[in-house]
Amino acid sequence: MSDLFEDPTPGQTAGQTPGQTSGQTAGESSGQNAPEFSVSEISGEVKRTLESTFGRIRVRGEVGRVFKARSGHLYYDIKDDRSVLACTTWKGQISSLSVVPEEGLEVVVTGRLTAFGAQSKYNMNVDEVAVAGQGALMALLEKRKKQLESEGLFAPERKKPLPYLPHIIGVVTSPSGAVIRDILHRLRERFPRKVLVWPVAVQGANCAPEVARAIEGFNRMTPGGALPRPDLIIVARGGGAIEDLWGFNEEVVARAAAASDIPLISAVGHETDTTLIDYVSDRRAPTPTAAAELAVPVRLELMAWVEDQGARLLRGTGQAVQQRRQRLNDLSRAMPRPDSLLETPRQRLDQAGYNLPRALMSAVHQRQVGLGKASAGLRPATLRSLVQRRRGQFETAIAKLSPYPIAREIARQKTDLEKLNARMVAAQAVRIARQSQQLEASGRQLDILSYKATLSRGYAVVRSGAEVLTTRAQAAAAPALSIEFSDGVLDLDAKEAAQK
Fold it and tell me: Can you say how many angstroms the Cα of residue 106 is from the centroid of all Cα atoms in its chain?
């Protein structure tokens, strides 16, 4: 290491390493006699070497992760396709920057290299930033964004509303990170729900295909099956640099999220991180914890709201009843007393009761006068004359009634009935003849298909009771045999038949 350090420390000669005294030779420092250095000595020498060797330098690259600490210091990365250089701009230097670093910008930074020995890291203290061109990653992202937007995947009308209280929530994330713990913790606090976790890689080459397959897999589940389909999907990941989140900028992930029939919440990165899945998702949450808050309401707040609504309902019902009771009382005071309402009808009743006897007598007198007038015209001679006149009219009517027209009508209908009967008999005879022919043809066909025709050619049917035997072994085992020929049936004892 003697050639690495240019300025020897006090008490050290040129060619000596830190911790080697002038009394030690090179041979003594080799092997088991190598000097021991403290960590601080090595860190200090590395820092001095970096600062003295490079001095003030300019570096070109793309801005990656940008983080502003509470202290006001600005931390960010400058990267190319192979390496990342950590950069720092102190709080007092930020105001002098012509351009504040933003993620995705291609810049040229100027400053000094230094080392942070406490963590064995080196970085660059930047005091000047100039824009060098649009970053390649951001340019690609903008191109994809415009393409998907032109296809209508970002349109607000295609976004689905989130279920108010989902029964099952599917989470697409890494099962080993803090994200899933934060989501589960927040769900338990707000409103516990069943959660299905689909483990995926949240960065690297496998991130995009695994996330897309997870979204499609949740959508292919059967509602109410053994593994039920979720009512809501959360795609979540913690914060990171743009290259760490790049898997969620892939087109396959964006299209899978847009094609999801299940409402989807994207919670990728922190609030300042934006990826393509945020544009196509139904809702975007700034953090995974916020996604859990969007997914379910607070149970206690919901119960309090229900209780408040119940109390309001009771108060409203009570007030309505009270108002109607007051209205009824007001109306009752405006109405007259029952006695005053009945005074006039009672007077009319008394007047009618006073006038009723005289009215009855007058009516009876009028009826007697009318009866006398009617009875004045009733004499026996008049009645006899009226009876004779009615009898003459009756005899005239009887003379007009003759049985001959009725007899003619009966004869005509009888003739028609005989004709119809003859036609029916003829039609029935034709139908019976046709069905007889069909029956004979069916009988001949049955004879042709019957096994009895086969018996006439020299065959026989062997039975044992009702069972038909088809093998010699069955016949030998049967207690008795019945052989049917074309001209009859022959009964045999099976044992005697076997002996013969």
Answer: 45
Alpha-carbon distance of 93 to 112, in angstroms, equals 13
- For residue 183, the Cα-to-chain-centroid distance in whole angstroms is 21
Q: Can you list the alpha helix ranges (DSSP code H) found in 176-284?
A: 178-190, 207-220, 251-259, 276-280
* pLDDT exceeds cutoff 50 at 3: no
pLDDT bucket at 485, cuts 50 / 70 / 90: confident
The reply to whether the predicted model has a pTM over 0.70 is: no
DSSP 123-182: EEEEEEEEEEEE-HHHHHHHHHHHHHHHTTTT-GGGPPPPPSS-SEEEEEE-TTSHHHHH
Q: Output the furthest CA–CA distance in the chain (Å, rounded).
A: 185
Enumerate the β-bridge partners of residue 462. 469, 483
- Residue 171 has what pLDDT? 96
Q: Do residues 478 and 487 lie in contact, with contact meaning Cβ atoms separated by under 8 Å?
A: no
- The encoded tokens of residue 9 equal 């420390």
Question: Angle 136-150/251-259 helices, nearest 10 degrees?
Answer: 30
In the chain, the amino acid numbered 87 is: C
| Spatial separation of the C-alpha atoms in residues 259 and 419, rounded to whole Å | 81
Give the list of residues 6+ apart from residue 137 with CB closer than 8 angstroms, or none: 62, 104, 242, 243, 246
Amino acid identity for residue 327 in this structure: R
Asked if residues 242 and 103 have their Cβ atoms less than 8 Å apart, the reply is yes
pLDDT over 90 at 241, yes or no: no
Helix, strand, or coil here: 476? helix
Is residue 108 within a helix (H) or strand (E), and if so which, with residue range? strand 105-116
In terms of C-beta density within 10 A (0-12 exposed, 13-18 middle, 19 or more buried), how is residue 88 classed?
middle
State how far the Cα of 387 lies from the Cα of 83, in Å rounded to an integer: 140
Query: With left for phi above 0 and alpha for psi between -120 and 50, is residue 374 left, alpha or beta?
Result: alpha
> Across all residues in the chain, what is the average pLDDT?
84
Average pLDDT over residues 285-309: 90
Measured CA to CA, the distance from residue 124 to residue 88 in angstroms comes to 6
Answer whether 438's CB lies under 8 Å from 432's CB.
no
